[in-house]
Amino acid sequence: MAIEEIVAPGTTVAAMPPVVGRFSDFVYQLRGNPATFAGLFIVALIFLSALLGPFVIRYDPYGVNLNDAALAPSLAHPFGTDQYGEDVLTRVVVAARLDLVMVLSAVVASTVIGVTIGALAGFFGHYFDEGVMRSQDVLQAFPRFVFAMAVAWALGPGVVTVIVATAAINIPGYARLMRGLMLSVKESQFAMAAVAVGNSRWRLLWRHLLPNCLTPVIVLSTLQCGFTILEAAGLSFIGLGVRVPTAEWGVMISMGLQDFLQGHWWIYTFPGLAIAVAVLGFNLLGDGLQDILDPKRRRV
Amino acid sequence: MSLLEVSDLRTSFFLRTGELRVLDGVNIDIDEGEVLGLVGETGSGKSVTAYSIIRLLKQPGRIVGGEVRWRGRDLVTLWESELEQEIRGKEIAMIFQNPREALNPVITVGRQLTQVLEIRRGMSKREARLEAIKIVKSLHISDPESRLNSHPHQLSGGMAQRIMISLALSCEPRLLIADEPTTGLDVTTQYQIVQLLRELRDRTGMAILIITHDLALAAQMCDRVAVLYAGKIAEVGRTEYLFRSPRHPYTKALLASRPRLGLKGDIVTIPGNVANLMHPPGGCRFHPRCPNALSICSEFQPPLEQMEPGQLVACHNPVVVHQEAAASG
Amino acid sequence: MAERAQAANIPVLTPDPVVLAIDNVVKHYPIKTGAFKTEQVRAVDGVSLEVRRGETLGLVGESGCGKSTLGRVALRLEPPTSGSVRFGDVELTSLSGGEVRRLRPKLQMVFQDPLGSLNPRMKVWQTVAEPLLLHRLAAPGQVRAKVRDLFSRVGLSDELLTRYPHELSGGQQQRVGIARALAPNPELVVLDEPTSALDVSVQAKLINLLRGLKEDLRLTQVFISHDLSVIGYLTDRVAVMYLGEVVELGPTATIYTEPRHPYTGALMSAVPGDDLLDRKTRLMLPGEVPSPIKPPPACRLAPRCPFARDRCRQEKQVLRSVGADHMVACWRAAEGEISTQDFERTRLALEV
Question: Do A300 and B15 touch (CB under 8 A)?
Answer without folding.
Answer: yes
